[in-house]
Structures are given as C-alpha cells and as structure tokens.
Amino acid sequence: MRHIYLRSRRNYIIRFRSFGPADVTNTLTRLGVRDGDVLMVHCGWNRFAGFDGALKDLIAAIHSVVGTNGTVLMPTMAFSGSAIDYALDDPLFDYRRTPSAMGLLSEVYRRDPSVIRSQHPTHSVAGRGPLAEMLLCEHHLADNPCGAGTPWARLIDVRAKIAFLGVTTQTNTFAHCVQALLEPEWAELDAEKRTLLSGLTAERYPIRTRLESGEEFVCHTRLFDRTHMRHANSDRLTEWLDERRLVKRASVKGVPFTVLPAREAFEETKLRARAEQFIVDVQAFEQAMTQTEVKHA
Q: CA end-to-end span of the chain, whole Å?
C-alpha cells in the first residue's frame, strides 16, 4: 500500500506542484535579491519535492541571481541540537571532511571544489564568490561562533540578505549573532541574566579542529548556553521586521521563500533591546528560575 501512496503523491506533485530553476531565480529577484548581493541561504531540500532539477541546479539558480559579482553563503554547522553537548563529546572538526548537519543542500555545496569553508568547529559557513574569503577568514580565532570577527557578524557590514527556502525563520542563526554582538550593552547586569540575553557562556570550550592546511588546532570558544536556546525565539526578530515591512515573502508551488535584510535586523534588535524587548523570553526564564528555587528551598 505504501508504494501506491508514494506513487500517487509523486504524480500529484509532478502535475500540480512542479517548478524549475527559473521559478527560483524569478522569485528571489521578486523578493529583492540583486546582482552583487551577499546572500546567506538556509534551505530545507525536503520541501523541494516538486523541483524539476537536482541539487546542483538549485545551487546554480541561486548563484545566477547574485551573479558573478555576488557571494552565496550557507551554514555548514557540524551538529544538530546543543553546541555544548557536541563540544563535550570531544569531536575533531575537520575542515575538509566533517559533513554539514544543516541539510543536504549545504552538504552538496560544501563539497563543491570551488566553495570554501570557514574553520570554526561548531558554526562553520561555506561560501563562493568574490567576498567569500574575506567573510569566512579567521572564524576559528573569534571569541564565539557568531559574534564579532565571524562570518555572521560580517553580514551586517556588507548589507547581506538572508534567505529561507522551504524553512521558517525560526532557523535563523543570525538572530544569535545579533544577541552576541549586543553583549557589551548588558555588562552591568548580573552574570545569569547577561548569559540569558547574549546567549553566550562565560566558559570556553576546547574543540579540536583540523584546519585547511591539515594542521590540528584547538579552538577555545564560548558557546550558546542551553538556557538561552530553550527560551530564544528567532521569529520575534521576524515579527519586528514585519512591523517595518522589511520581510519579503513568496511561495513557489507551496514552498515558502522568505528574505530578510541583515543590517536592518541588527539595528532593529538593538533598538528593541534598549526598550527592554528581547529575542529571549525573559519572563518565561525568570518564572522557570523561580520555580527551580522553590523546588530546592
């Protein structure tokens, strides 16, 4: 029975949900992506069942929108779940061999000989284009995975756009970047709340990293705290940008496409933070802490 269901579903998709590379390029163009742009792409390939082409054709379609003057980036993080749990397992991150855990498209992109990858052991990024080397360099030397000195923070400087193809903006790693960048603004808060808002641990985790050169390097990096991850909601950033009409959306045969501007996202988060509005649900965090204290009283 299952094979009958799968065949019927496939026939339905081909008849009513089929689309090709031209539909992808036209949609991204309609959402404001232009020649010369830097584009960070999050993609859920499983939603592309109706796509008339292979993974390489989707990659080519994305690149064609930004042209030879543009740069395409994709997250190639080595884990799913908690970065701290990953670090505590004592992994060896290998620039060349460690696969991306961020979906099939990012893994195929990473393997392309023309694509380079940043060398941070938890939050690496792959890219191709004239700005790729500048954006990805020295990631493994940064204080933390997504703050100053990382590809994520450099998205702001180059006015990059962030695209979500077949996934929601809840997958937006850039939201953690802006929280990390705002950490100095919360210097006077107690350590617990500062960690909650920035997301970053005080502790540094040593992670073995085999660099592009083949040399083994130990990256001592701060990571995102489990409490922060439990109470963070990246969609809040999208909602704030929606209020300013800065979120561009479209659907291609039922596959959602969303594009956000990086610099405006950072500036909006900074303004909201000064008004005591955060990506993290502070009230839920404080309630959880109160319940814990009562339980242990």
A: 57
pTM for this entry:
0.91
Neighbouring residues of 61: CB distance < 8 A, sequence distance ≥ 6: 21, 22, 24, 25, 53
Strand partners, 38: 71
If we measure between CA atoms, which residue out of 52, 59, 45, 57 comes closest to residue 18? Answer: 52
CA distance 198 to 270: 12
List the one residue out of 200, 60, 77 whose CA is nearest residue 144: 200
Render pLDDT for 17-50 as a digit per residue (tens, 0 to 9): 789 999 999 999 999 999 999 999 999 999 999 9
Task: For residues 172 and 67, give the distance between their C-alpha atoms in angstroms, rounded to a whole number.
Answer: 24
Q: What is 256-291 written as a DSSP string?
A: EEEEEEHHHHHHHHHHHHHTT--SB-HHHHHHHHHH
- Alpha-carbon distance 133 to 57, whole Å? 24
